[in-house]
Design goal:
By secondary structure, the chain is an all-alpha fold. The chain has a domain of 72 residues.
Amino acid sequence: MIKLVSILAALLILIQSFNISFGDITQLDELLEHAAFHKTEYGDNIFVFISKHYGELKADHNKKHQEEKEDHEKLPFENHSSSQHALNAFVLFETLTPRHKIDVIRIKSISFFYLHGDSSSHESGIFQPPRNV
């Protein structure tokens, strides 16, 4: 069971490292429509399409085809919002109790001492606790 949870946690961290959000998944239909447009308009295959929108041909394609700017902004995996960097830590403990007994040695040391004050108010009984008579 622990191995399954560990594998699922590792897959979750892997998927999060790709920075894929739910919004990107919902925009996949826009990606497919735009890919079909490129195939009919320019004769691009899928590799050229990906290179034009996510690879080394992106700057040249954006410069030449300003009329498609609105369509390009709707494509997934662009991450137009600010980038978020987070440190994810996920720790699994096999057991909560230690496997071996740890001997604890307690050393009691007396570190309290009292010096009698020289004030006359102590001698007069003003600051003394009440007494049963």
